[in-house]
Amino acid sequence: MHRVADHPPDFLGLHYYGTSGQEAINFIEMMHKKWPKIKVMVTEIASISRKYDEVVKFTAKVCNWADKTDWIFEYSFFGCMRKVADGFVSPEAQLMKPDGHFTPLMGKLMREAPMKA
Questions:
Q1: CA–CA separation, 63 and 16 (whole Å)
Q2: Number of H helices and number of E strands within the chain?
Q3: Which residues have CB under 8 Å from 47's CB, separation 6+?
Q4: What is the C-alpha separation between 65 and 72, in angstroms, rounded?
Q5: Is 7 exposed, middle or buried (0-12, 13-18, 19+ CB in 10 A)?
Q6: What pTM was computed for the model?
Q7: Rounded to the nearest 10 degrees, how much is the dihedral formed by the CA atoms of 90, 18, 49, 69?
Q8: What CA–CA distance (Å, rounded) separates 95 from 107?
Q9: Greater model confidence, 85 or 30
């Protein structure tokens, strides 16, 4: 950030992919501690687990934490597309089906607050 000290960014943009919601939170908190004056935008986050129940736990943990964290400006889960982007992000984390309808996971994200695991 020393290169932009005269004109600091409005937000710190972060991406995270993994299997542990707590590890995702730890990473985001660590980055915020490095630059505590800058609000955070998590512009991509998703579970890479191939087990749906683990994906839901990850998503609920991160979502519920982010919703109550005042320095999170916004966050967005990855995967709202008809096809799986690649072999990295889990197909279980997809938010849209091939026919364009939302998956049950997207339904949970949109309708549950707090989200239930």
A1: 13
A2: 3, 3
A3: 17, 18, 19, 21, 54, 55, 58, 59, 90, 92, 93
A4: 10
A5: exposed
A6: 0.92
A7: -90
A8: 8
A9: 30
